Amino acid sequence: MAEVSVNNVTKTFGSLKALDDVTMDFPDGGFFALLGPSGSGKTTLLRAIAGFIFADSGTIRIGDQPVENVPVEKRDIGMMFQNYALFPNMTVSDNVGFGLRVRKVGAAEERRRIGEALDLVQLGQHGDRKPHQLSGGQRQRVALARAIVTNPRVLLLDEPLSALDKALRVDMQFELKRIQREIGITTIFVTHDQEEALTLSDKIGILRDGKMIQAGPPRDVYSNPADLFTATFLGEANILDALAGEGADIKIPHGFPTGGTLAVRPENISISQTEPTANGLSKCQAVLERRVFAGAMATCILQSNGNRIKVISRDQDIPSDVAEGDRLWLTWPVEKTLSVPSGRH
Amino acid sequence: MSGVFLARLGKLWLACILFFLYAPIAVMAFMSFNASQYYQLPFDFSLKWYEKLAGNQEIVDAATRSVMIALATTVIATILGTAASVALFRYEFRGKRFLQVMLFPPIAIPWLITGTAMLIFFFGVGLGRGTPSVIIGHVALALPYVIVVVSARLATFDATLEEAARSLGADSWTVTREVTLPWISSGVIAGALFAFAVSFDQFVVSYFLSEPGDSTLPVLIYTSIRKGFTPEINAISTIIIVVSMAVMLFAARFSNFGGER
Description:
Chain A is α+β, with helices and mostly antiparallel strands. Chain A contains 8 helices and 18 strands.
């Protein structure tokens, strides 16, 4: 187990800056997500930490060791690949034991640790099977067991769950988190799924065009996005810039940066039919365009002064007799207004 | 109606092809078991030409030499070709495309020209004629076949398997031995069989590069035919054909199965 730190790492492929002065710390034992759209550099960063890519400049440390000149096989990492990359000619046990055989731990020790690792991922009975005899979720678990059986200093996951269907993915998310807690290994995973990143990680790094836009605990990043891109990429946000009109009263939060953009999350807006009078609320009028019922929750799309506003709330909190085309009042607490610094993208 | 007709025509066509391909060979094999030296019928079964063959030290020596040269060629060309294929698959380097493209012309260039060029070259570098020259020449001819066959198998290989092995601590030799070679083994075997066949059946290059009195089997057959034909040649040719066909069928089987596993 070890902490990982990435400092001012830059990597260029031809004329493309895949990583542009990226810095992020991954403290010991944490679970970290690298999140970004495709082409943002998140996979490049993971592969640079793994050692498949050597950075042009900057430093990467695993524990106390600078690893810029250390090849993959000497970095003592565990890695899980998007397509699992199980060795097709080997049984499950031989797959899991590969790293142990390379390290020459001895047959008895190898057998014991393979058993432990397979038990940990709940595949104790499947050691003799070949990878092609397993389901997608089982292969996933074998890949995980193989990656952690050598007690690596850091576990790297490259979109580990993207090949699974939704229900299985949610199961595996919890499973992954449970195993990570149990062995306490520093884990870095790449994903383009913002929900997955929010659910699993202690700290999120948001990348875009090779730059680290923001890094921090999920809740911090969600409620204080560093820029408009982060605000809209991590969750949804209604931009309030051009919001005005009859009765509109948009309060600007204290300490709001000049030249910034105001935004509010869909789940923080309330809908009412009469003008609200309470203090400390921002408000405006909007016409209901569409109301989408989704069981417990409902999504409303409204128009206000040419702005499209999305509201997500409990269905029972929306008056039942509102109809499409009605003029409604939207309110939200001032402190829920996101103040997004602009000009950083 | 026309479908049935076309199907019959197709079968007839296939039968013609097989007939023209194999009838001369069949006649030769048939005659190698005929007692008459002058192809006289009626057929009188006899193994005397095979007996004579066994007693003909010149032919036995040439056959042994051919097999040894083919085995040496197979080993060298398979190792070099497999290593080259893996390198071409694994690494990006300057001139890689050029190198890959340049692998194919030797297959298309007539052996007569290749043979002449090799002869001039080997005399130029002072190696001259002889078994080492023959082996080097055969390796050069067989190498493109090995690389093509092994590369075809490698095209189905998932490169992330190598990355996974490296992430688990395996150095590049361990990765090759434990992960890459098991996957391409059928291609390597097929490539080796092709290399053997190319060498064992080679006439032109062997004729140019071997020393007189030190010739390979095909060269010996050619020179004996010029001196005077005996059914011994039928017998040795029949043996060569059986061996070559067995090797090629084996190779075809492996390269076919390679894609499906």
